[in-house]
Amino acid sequence: MNINVRWANETDAENLMLLNQEFNGVGLSISDVLTSIRQSKELIALAILDEEPVGFACAQWFNSFCYPHGQGEITEMYIQEKARRKGLATQLIDFLEQEFRCRGVKSVNILTGRDNVQAHKTYTRSNYMKKDEVVFQKKL
């Protein structure tokens, strides 16, 4: 079993499109994904198992006058069912955290569903602590 995590690039657009469709059910085109890769400041890490892309994680980072150091957020994380429980999610987290450190980020948040017990376990193993916060959302 050969496991690798690396930055996604333009040649990964089709695989990212398919993985995102499985994860979010969003029907983006390859062109949409390519545009995002080229223009967004989003960090996109790709998980590879035996030369096949099987998951991804997306992250954002920013600086604010409200905090003395950069802030980060892992916004999306998905591993295909066939590739789960092999340590890929943990490797994706470690990979993104390393980049965050290089950018001066000192605090990272991860949002996940209340009922996503497996994700909760993964994040806890990576030393994330559950916070008692409420998220509000509004569609514009």
UniProtKB/TrEMBL annotation:
<dbReference type="InterPro" id="IPR050832">
    <property type="entry name" value="Bact_Acetyltransf"/>
</dbReference>
<dbReference type="InterPro" id="IPR016181">
    <property type="entry name" value="Acyl_CoA_acyltransferase"/>
</dbReference>
<protein>
    <recommendedName>
        <fullName>N-acetyltransferase domain-containing protein</fullName>
    </recommendedName>
</protein>
<keyword id="KW-0808">Transferase</keyword>
<dbReference type="Pfam" id="PF00583">
    <property type="entry name" value="Acetyltransf_1"/>
</dbReference>
<feature type="domain" description="N-acetyltransferase">
    <location>
        <begin position="3"/>
        <end position="140"/>
    </location>
</feature>
<dbReference type="InterPro" id="IPR000182">
    <property type="entry name" value="GNAT_dom"/>
</dbReference>
<keyword id="KW-0012">Acyltransferase</keyword>
<dbReference type="GO" id="GO:0016747">
    <property type="term" value="F:acyltransferase activity, transferring groups other than amino-acyl groups"/>
</dbReference>
